[in-house]
Specification:
The mean pLDDT is about 90. The chain has about 300 residues and is an alpha/beta fold. The protein is built from twelve helices and eight strands.
């Protein structure tokens, strides 16, 4: 099955909700103020965000108000609007080989799929011939360390870890030195995601950055935030919090296959303007793929192309 097909299946909950909602609304065949209002509510329910939903409806009102229109025309207009809003976030993920090792700091709340995402990304980079290693920086969660070790064993990747509860910044310092000594091209640093203790998490992540910069002054070269699509609008606030803590410069959105809130990517794009490098629609390595605004918009509105 291609990623296009998997994306279609993954977005099925959101797509069914939006497309059946549009079909129900457009029984009158005219885009009047009442149908515009219902359509706006439908988009808000799918987590497009209040501002974006209002902007799209304002545009529709200007162009199409009181004109006859079919539900497919509406879906195509919506897909175009969504693609335009998401297109600036569609950027290829690239490793700058001038940096050796290229340090990737992975952040995100516990349960967002961060550790699994590290494994999937590492597999992709291995296929490009990169020598990859892991640093298990989430030292207070034994399960996270074990999960990273499982991925490392599966991919035959070296993982640097310490005893439970050890100082994560100190571990990252030693792990980065080991990666340099080993000649690694890319190092992933897994981190904690305990948002309920925001100030503690902030201190810990900032300390990790300070410590690794003692070895490589311009590291980390990428700070990637993993977001769980099923959390809806919470994902928007997570972007704001982690940007404030550690200067996130790229996003990976997981679990789209379990969400009826696929519109959240549109809300995130409107709020953050950050690159969305990858999206995930399943557990397998190949279920994480580069984000394509056109494909996403088409599948969200159940359009074949």
């Amino acid at each position: 099955m291609s990623f296009w097909e998997k994306l279609g299946l993954g977005l099925k909950k959101t797509s069914n909700s939006i497309t059946s909602g549009i079909s129900d609304i457009f029984t009158k065949k005219k885009l009047d103020s009442a149908t515009l209002e219902e359509l706006e509510e439908l988009l808000i329910t799918a987590d497009f965000g209040v501002t974006t939903s209002a902007e799209i409806m304002q545009k529709f009102a200007t162009q199409k108000q009181d004109k006859e229109i079919t539900d497919e025309e509406i879906r195509r207009l919506l897909a175009t609007e969504i693609e335009q809003r998401l297109k600036p976030c569609e950027q290829p993920f690239a490793i700058d080989s001038a940096h050796k090792p290229f340090v990737i700091l992975m952040v995100g709340v516990n349960g967002a799929g961060k550790t699994t995402t590290i494994g999937k990304l590492a597999a992709k980079l291995q296929q490009q011939g990169k020598k990859v290693s892991f640093i298990a920086g989430d030292t207070f969660r034994a399960a996270a360390v074990e999960q990273l070790k499982v991925w490392a064993e599966r991919l035959k990747i070296r993982v640097f870890s310490g005893p439970d509860g050890c100082d994560s910044a100190g571990l990252c310092y030693d792990g980065l030195n080991a990666a340099i000594k080993n000649g690694d091209n890319v190092v992933f640093i897994d981190t904690a995601g305990r948002l309920q203790n925001k100030s503690g998490l902030m201190d810990e992540l900032k300390k990790i950055v300070r410590v690794i910069q003692k070895i490589i002054p311009d590291a980390p070269h990428k700070v990637l935030l993993t977001l769980d699509a099923t959390t809806g609008q919470n994902a928007v606030s997570q972007v704001q919090i982690f940007r404030e803590i550690v200067g996130v410069n790229g996003l990976i959105v997981t679990k789209l296959d379990g969400s009826s809130k696929g519109g959240i990517l549109v809300a995130i794009a409107a709020e953050s303007k950050l690159p969305i490098y990858y999206i995930g629609v399943g557990e397998k390595i190949e279920d994480l793929d580069s984000f394509c605004a056109h494909d996403f918009a088409c599948q969200l509105l159940n359009l074949k192309e």
